[in-house]
Amino acid sequence: MQNSLIENKKRHLILVLLFLGWCLSYLDRMAMNVGIVEIAKDFNLSPSVMGIVLSSFFAGYAIMQVPGGWLADKYGSRKVIAVAILFWSIFTVLTGMAWSLMSMVVIRFMFGLGEGAYPAASSKAIANAFPKKERPGAQTIMMSSNSLGGVIAPLIATPLLVWIGWKNLFLTIGILGIVVAWLLWHYLKPENMKQDHSEEEVSEKASFKDVIKIPITWKLAIMWFGMSTVIWGLISWMPPYLVGARGLDLMSMGMLTSIPALTGAIATVIGGQLIQSYLSGKEKLIAIVSSILVIVCLYLLYNAPSVTFVITFQSLCTIFHGLVFATIFSLPHKVISKTNIGTAIGIINLGGMIGAFLAPMAMGYLIEKFNGSYTPAFIYLIVCAVLSIVAAVALNKKRDLSFENNVIISGGKSI
Questions:
Q1: Residue 268 and residue 274: Cα distance in Å, rounded?
Q2: Phi-psi category of 86—alpha, beta or left, where left has phi over 0 and alpha has psi -120 to 50?
Q3: N or C end of the chain: which has fewer CB within 10 A?
């Protein structure tokens, strides 16, 4: 009994630290989205070039998703997590030292490579530290940090941007990252990752070729492509939209953009807990209905008569997005073995990060092409969200949503 309580405390400490690592990664990313207005002035950037700067991070981030998952499965989550945070923190510091447009693009690409290994590795750590029945809940709590990071980041980054400038902002956040890297290396020791083995999973570590044959990973990847396009399109372009099209100042913009992020975080946590308990088996329905409501909120957001309604509809949009998000990242822990979860999550997140890479760049191009109009950019988000609905409809309850049908055994076959 005493040992069980100690192991439970260790698991929750690990979850807190993984959550902190995600918040840091979001702070690093959001610092650029908040700072891009001032950076654009210093480098004299057009909307399309601003989109390229914002997308350069996602190019590196997307490329590293699958290799990061494979590395975590092969060498363990602890090493990959510590190296990833240290690597991206160094390039966060270098972001503040960028001397030209090209240097900024290269630095942000390298920064993305560093961060790209963290999602799958952190999911691997959840699988290693928690019993199977607790993993979906732990995963969604950890992933709610994405939205919570969106709350914290503007509240931290915007005042710092105003007080010390964008260069010192990135220097400060980079130093913080080095501290977080040490904490995770220190606490993710093998003795702290022990769990109850009463539910042993009969599976073997599969090759990359075997894991990519699991159909649900690709369906979830397409769903995440659509939803990631929506959320990162909004995160990247709502600050310029609120300042340029709606007439807000930097500080007001930073405070208001934290509200939708908070509602998204709450929806992700609640959605994850509901999926783990009361709504288990209804993931497909949740994803379809929530994706449709995301599209409705996008339309209402752009056509809102005031800033108050803009933030209201954006908040509703992030709530329904959070429910889809919780579905996408809790399902793998229910239907895929922990020995292969790193690679599977890497594939799923690759789909999302392709969407995140394209969104800022495509929206910037459309805004410039149509003389500053945001209408085509919002239409682009809606079209991509439709893909999420199509992929959710394609989920098959017997084939995709069963653990037995997604477990790799000897010979590289699923059972």
A1: 10
A2: alpha
A3: N
Distance of CA 164 to the CA centre of its chain: 28
- In degrees and rounded to multiples of 5, residue 399 shows phi and psi of -90, -40
Q: Are 101 and 53 in contact (CB under 8 A)?
A: yes
Domain containing residue 345: CATH number: 1.20.1250.20
Run of H or E including 20: helix 2-43
Are 304 and 271 in contact by the 8 Å Cβ rule? The answer is: no
Predicted model pTM: 0.72
Number of domains in the chain: 1
Is 120 part of a structural domain of the chain?
yes
- What is the token pair recorded at 281? 């088996």
pLDDT digits (tens, 9 = 90+) for 316-371: 998 998 889 888 888 887 777 777 777 888 889 889 888 988 888 888 889 888 88
Contact 80, 121 (CB under 8 A): yes
Tell me the chain's radius of gyration from C-alpha atoms: 20
* Structure tokens belonging to residue 382: 């809606």
Buried b (16+ CB within 10 A) or exposed e, 210-245: bbeebbbbbbbbbbbbbbbbbbbbbbbbbbbbbeee
Domain interval for residue 404:
2-192+204-414
